[in-house]
Amino acid sequence: MKKPKRRPPPKRVKRLVLERQHDKCGCGCGRDFFVGPGTEPKFDHRPALGVRAIRDDGSDWIPAQHDPDFICALLQECHDKRTFGPSKATSRGGDVGEIARLKRILKKREERESAPRRDRRKKPKRKMASRGFSKQKRKMSSRCKSNTKPLRSRKNWFRP
Q1: In the chain, at which residue ranges do the beta strands (DSSP E only) sit?
Q2: Which of 8, 36, 142, 154 has its CA 20 to 30 A from that of 45?
Q3: Residues 121-149 as b or e (16 or more Cβ within 10 Å = b)
Q4: pLDDT by residue (tens digit) across 34-67?
Q5: Is residue 21 one of the residues assigned to a domain?
Q6: How many domains does the chain have?
Q7: Low-confidence ranges of the chain (pLDDT < 50)
Q8: What is the C-alpha separation between 31 and 17, in angstroms, rounded?
Q9: What does the pLDDT read at residue 55?
Q10: Helix or strand or coil: residue 68?
Q11: Which element (helix H / strand E) includes 42?
């Protein structure tokens, strides 16, 4: 299936998103946009486009990439945390790591489905191995016979 072309959000969508968020960062930090250098909004898709399903005709994602309900305006710092993850050591927790994980899962699934299936019934069943006890009948002996002396009590076990 062909992937749709990614396009920047139009100005109309950006305006709607900023009005909805009252010109504040959408991550929850509450900082304002347009108060100095580096405070211009970055528009982030929620969920990320790499995680969304694609329509059958390949024209767009589901939901659409320019749907203002699924776009969030963030400051550059907050956008980087969401995209690349909260720590610099790993991408776990960010969109990049999640998209890579999803690709790995889909690749393994595709390999598993394209591999020839094994028919488990072709292998003959084997009998379970026994423990090797003798099959002959043995005379059972008991330790306590009726013509022996009674056992001594514990108190007098050392006397003859």
Answers
A1: 42-45, 53-54, 61-62, 71-74
A2: 36
A3: eeeeeeeeeeeeeeeeeeeeeeeeeeeee
A4: 877 777 899 999 999 989 999 999 899 999 999 9
A5: yes
A6: 1
A7: none
A8: 15
A9: 92
A10: helix
A11: strand 42-45
Structural domain including 82 reads 11-114
Q: Could you tell me which residues are beta bridge partners of residue 62?
A: 53
Reading the block at residue 21, the tokens are 């968020």
12 CB burial (10 A radius; 0-12, 13-18, 19+): exposed
Instruction: Look at the block and give the residue holding tokens 């007098």.
Output: 156
Residue 31 CA to residue 77 CA, distance in Å, equals: 11
The answer to the question of residue 107 being in a domain is yes
Residues 6 and 64: their CA atoms lie apart, in Å, by 11
Q: Which two structure tokens, joined as six digits, stand for 10?
A: 């139009």
Any alpha helices (H) in 2-133, and if so which ranges? 11-20, 76-84, 95-114
Q: Is residue 54 part of a domain?
A: yes
- Rounded CA-CA distance 60/54 in Å is 6
Contact 52, 3 (CB under 8 A): no
Identify the pLDDT of residue 63: 93
